[in-house]
Amino acid sequence: MSNTRSRSEDHLEELLKQKRRQTWMISIAILAVTVWSAWTTEFSFFEVFTGVEEIIRFIFLDFLPPDFSTFNRLIGPALDTIYISFVAMVVGALLSMILAFFAAATTSPSRTIQVAVRAFCSILRNIPTLIWGILLVAAYGLGTLVGTLALIFTAIGTLTRAYAEILEEIDMGPVEAARSTGASYFQVLGQAVFPQFMPGFIGWSLYKLELNVRASTLIGMVGGGGLGFAIQNGLKLFQYKEVSLAIIMVIVLVLVTEWMTSKLRERII
Predict the structure, then answer these.
(1) In the chain, fewer beta carbons within 10 Å around the N or the C end?
(2) Does 126 lie in the same domain as 105?
C-alpha cells in the first residue's frame, strides 16, 4: 500500500513539473512574440513618453475648450446619429429575428438551410462596420442612408447568431406539450417559443442600439452622416474646438443611451 501511495505521489509530482514546464514555455513564447511584434512595428516606450508633451499641448491649447457657439450647427448631425442608430436597430432586429428561426437547430426546417443562414450571417458579421461604410459610400454616395445600411448589415450578422442561440437554449418542455395538443407550427411558436424568446430578443436589441450609437460615429467619418461626418469635416478644416464639442456630444449620447436602455431592460425584462 505504501508503494502505491509513493507511486501516486511521484506521478503527481511529475504532473506538477510538467505543468510548470508548460507554463514557462508558454510564457517564453508570449514574451518572444511580444518582443518580435514590438520590434516589427517599431514600438518604443521612449517615443511614447516623448510624445506626451505634444499630446497635452494639443489637447489643452488646440482642442479645449470646446466651441459652444457651434452647438446649434451640431444638433442636426446629433439627431441624425440617433435616427441612424435607432432605425438600424429596429430593421436589423426584425430581419435577424426572422433569420434566427432558420439558423437555430430547434426551429430550422432543415440542416441545409440552417448552415446556409449561419454562413451568410457569419460573412456579414466578420466584415467590419467601417468596411461596409466604405463599400456603401462607393455605391450610394455620402449620406445617412450609407450609415443606416452599414449598421443594418452588421446588426443582422450579430443579432441573428445571438437570437439563434437563444432559440437553441429554450426549454423544449412547453414546445413538446403544445405539439402534443395538435397545435400548428405557428401556434407552437406563439404559445411556447416566443414567451421564452422575447426577453433575450429585447435585451440583445437594446444592447445593439448602444453599439450602434458608438459605431455610427465611425461610419459617419467615412461619409455615413451624423456626428462622425461633422467630426471628419472639422478635422479636415482644423476646427478642433468644434470637433471637441462634437466628441463631447457623442459621449453624452452614448451615456444617455446606456442609461435609457438599462432602465428599459429593468422594466420590460
Answers:
(1) N
(2) yes
Whether residue 154 contacts residue 91, with contact meaning beta carbons closer than 8 Å, is answered with no
- Pair (50, 169) in one structural domain: no
Angle between helices 226-236 and 194-219 (to 10 degrees): 10
Phi/psi region, residue 67 (left: phi>0; alpha: psi -120 to 50; beta: rest), is beta
- The residue count for the chain: 269
Say if residue 195 is preceded by a cis peptide, omega within 30 of 0. Answer: no
**Residue 220, domain CATH:** 1.10.3720.10
Both 228 and 249 in one domain: the answer is yes
DSSP annotation of 127 reads S
DSSP for residue 104: S
By C-alpha distance, which of 257, 247, 240 is closest to 220? 247
Tens-digit pLDDT profile for residues 176-204 = 777 777 766 677 777 777 777 787 888 88
Residue 132 parent element (H or E): helix 129-140
Give pLDDT tens digits for 132-141: 888 888 887 7
